[in-house]
């Protein structure tokens, strides 16, 4: 006869009650900060056509576009490193501190793109400096989305975790919408030639004040209840466990959970290839190949991302009554 395993009863120490006011403040600050961070990251795609002419003037138009979009791809190679680095720091020192650091790095690196002289002024150093700034952006974004996702998940009640998490996507898309709107507005006000000469720098300069606002919002946040509980546990017992951080075996993940790992990688790749093709390549394709005006292409993307933001939040709200289920098999 099989023995039934005894289940440890839940005590008051196992239950964390989160004040609704703190929850709303945390979600709002995280989402707004996310919007400002992704405004910085996404605005590059809307001005790629201009950047190709400024930083790669000797090439033909097609090569200019390839070079500009190729530079945009570099941060994606750096993002995993940023996620690993800031993820480990977040486990040691807290999510709030890391989120403040990532938004500072993103704001400064984006602002610096607007300061880079053209190729005609400093030659080959212009695209090199652009590449370095994009690498800093990628490092920041890697820590940003990983950290803010954990931050929101640890703050959210179980039944509302999916809906609360959707506000991060809403914030990201809102940042892209804001970026498209700013580019369209500036281009329509200053004209195409002035936009190529100096107008493209303005969206990057806006990153600094937006970053200051985002830093203020995140600085006022409290650590998640889960992390505070972890700190209290370490203070009561083995304090070294917090300082040394969690022991993570990447070898174990790669050998024992490789199917799930590859599935997750495939899902993320398929989603991002489609999304960033629409985000970065399509505005340039409309302007360069189909000869649409910058205003027309940007306005189309502004409407697309606006609908995307509304649908994302609406879908998550509609799924609240249902039990979440995995989107891929658990091997």
Strand and helix layout:
Elements: H1 20-46, H2 48-55, H3 61-93, H4 95-115, H5 119-122, H6 125-155, H7 161-190, H8 192-199, H9 201-205, H10 207-219, H11 225-236, H12 240-244, H13 250-256, H14 258-288, H15 294-318
Helix pairs in contact: 1-4, 1-6, 1-7, 1-10, 1-14, 2-3, 3-4, 3-6, 4-6, 4-10, 6-7, 7-8, 7-15, 14-15
Quick recap:
The chain has 331 residues and is mainly α.
Plain-language structure description:
GO terms for molecular function: symporter activity. InterPro entries: H+-coupled_symporters, MFS_dom, MFS_sugar_transport-like, MFS_trans_sf. Keywords: Cell membrane, Membrane, Symport, Transmembrane, Transmembrane helix, Transport. Pfam families: Sugar_tr (PF00083). Its main location: membrane. By secondary structure, this protein is mainly α. The protein has one domain (18-224, 245-318): Up-down Bundle (Growth Hormone, Chain: A). 79% of the residues lie in helices and 0% in strands. The chain has 15 helices and no strands. It has helices at 20-46, 48-55, 61-93, 95-115, 119-122, 125-155, 161-190, 192-199, 201-205, 207-219, 225-236, 240-244, 250-256, 258-288, 294-318. The longest helix is centred in the first third of the chain and has 33 residues, at 61-93. The radius of gyration is 22 Å and the shape is globular. The two termini are 30 Å apart. Residues 327-331 have low confidence and may be disordered.
Which properties best describe this structure?
Growth Hormone, Chain: A, H+-coupled_symporters, globular, transport, single chain, 331 residues, mainly alpha, transmembrane helix
């Amino acid at each position: 006869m099989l023995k039934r395993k005894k289940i440890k009863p839940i005590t008051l120490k196992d239950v964390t009650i989160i004040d609704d006011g703190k929850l709303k403040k945390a979600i709002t600050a995280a989402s707004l900060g996310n919007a400002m961070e992704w405004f910085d990251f996404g605005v590059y795609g809307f001005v790629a056509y201009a950047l190709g002419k400024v930083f790669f003037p000797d090439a033909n138009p097609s090569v200019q576009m390839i070079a500009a979009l190729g530079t945009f791809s570099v941060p994606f190679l750096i993002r995993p490193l940023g996620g690993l680095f800031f993820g480990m720091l977040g486990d040691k020192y807290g999510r709030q501190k890391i989120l403040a650091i990532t938004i500072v790095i993103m704001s400064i690196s984006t602002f610096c793109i607007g300061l880079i002289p053209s190729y005609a002024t400093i030659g080959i150093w212009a695209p090199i400096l652009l590449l370095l700034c994009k690498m800093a952006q990628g490092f920041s974004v890697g820590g940003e989305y990983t950290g803010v996702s954990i931050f929101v998940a640890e703050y959210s009640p179980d039944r509302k975790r999916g809906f609360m998490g959707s506000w991060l996507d809403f914030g990201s898309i809102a940042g892209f919408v804001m970026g498209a709107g700013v580019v369209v507005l500036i281009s329509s006000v200053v004209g195409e030639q002035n936009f190529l000469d100096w107008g493209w720098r303005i969206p990057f300069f806006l990153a600094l004040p937006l970053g200051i606002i985002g830093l203020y919002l995140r600085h006022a946040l409290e650590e998640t209840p889960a992390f505070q509980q972890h700190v209290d546990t370490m203070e009561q017992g083995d304090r070294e466990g917090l300082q040394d951080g969690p022991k993570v075996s990447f070898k174990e993940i790669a050998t024992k959970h490789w199917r799930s790992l590859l599935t997750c990688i495939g899902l993320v790749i398929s989603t991002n290839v489609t999304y960033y093709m629409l985000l970065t390549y399509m505005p340039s394709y409309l302007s360069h190949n189909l000869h649409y005006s910058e205003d027309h292409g940007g306005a189309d993307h502004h409407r697309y991302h606006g609908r995307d933001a509304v649908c994302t939040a609406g879908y998550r709200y509609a799924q609240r009554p249902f039990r979440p289920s995995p989107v891929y098999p658990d091997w």
